[in-house]
Design goal:
With about 210 residues, the protein is of the alpha+beta class. The chain has seven helices and five strands. It folds into two domains: about 150 residues, no CATH class; about 45 residues, no CATH class. The strands form two sheets. A three-stranded antiparallel β-sheet has the order 1-2-5. It has a two-stranded antiparallel sheet with strand order 3-4. β3 and β4 form a beta hairpin. α1 runs antiparallel to α2. The chain is rod-shaped.
Length: about 210
């Protein structure tokens, strides 16, 4: 008696659909990853340019932070780079400019309390989120199965620059130095008469 064969019609179509879905899914993943790496480079440029705008000695820390924020807003929202950061695929969040990095931010990098209290760096930091990397691949599932909260993958964008003194700090330093001079020699210099308090602190945005 001839053995009856099971029907195998359509198996090649199933294999094709499975392979096609897998190839297209990995193609989308490779494209998203490449685009994300490009966007990260742009975000790093925005962070560095923002930090540099405020680090050269200005009037006071508040004005330095404002200059950084202004530069960040300009690059992110008004420059040729704006479409890349405002299309919904990539997001920059929580910008924190400042001539002194925040204590909470420094604490995440410093190893000791002394490092945190003696920070020699300032600059700019923000959160970069890639939404385009978070998507569903049919038959395989999500690229981010453990998602909690907003879509996307996040990382920090940091620009560290050496702290430069601002005009207010320089002027205060020179006044303090003058007071120290008066105390030299047991206060002997304090007896030298000054004509109409003629001493004037001079500064040139640097100490």
């Amino acid at each position: 008696m001839k053995k009856r064969r099971k029907a195998e019609k359509g198996m090649i179509a199933v294999d094709f659909l499975f392979a096609f879905t897998m190839v297209m899914g990995f193609t989308m993943l490779a494209f998203s990853l490449s685009l994300t790496l490009t966007a990260i480079e742009v975000a790093q440029y925005i962070g560095y340019a923002s930090a540099r705008a405020g680090m050269a000695g200005h009037q006071n820390p508040a004005s330095q932070s404002q200059l950084m924020q202004t530069k960040y807003d300009q690059l992110k929202n008004q420059s040729p780079l704006a479409p890349l950061m405002n299309n919904g695929w990539f997001v920059m969040l929580d910008p924190t400019p400042g001539p002194r990095l925040s204590s909470a931010f420094v604490a995440s990098f410093a190893s000791t309390a002394a490092d945190q209290a003696n920070s020699r760096y300032g600059g700019f930091n923000a959160v970069f989120r890639s939404v385009v990397l978070d998507f569903q691949i049919p038959l395989f599932g999500s690229t981010n199965p453990e998602r909690q909260g907003a879509r996307g993958f996040s990382t920090n964008i940091n620009a560290f620059l050496g702290v430069e003194p601002n005009a207010t700090e320089c002027y205060s330093f020179q006044i303090q130095r003058y007071q120290k001079f008066l105390q030299l020699g047991g206060g002997a210099y304090s007896q030298v008469p000054l004509i109409n308090n003629a001493y004037t602190g001079l500064w040139d945005n640097g100490c």
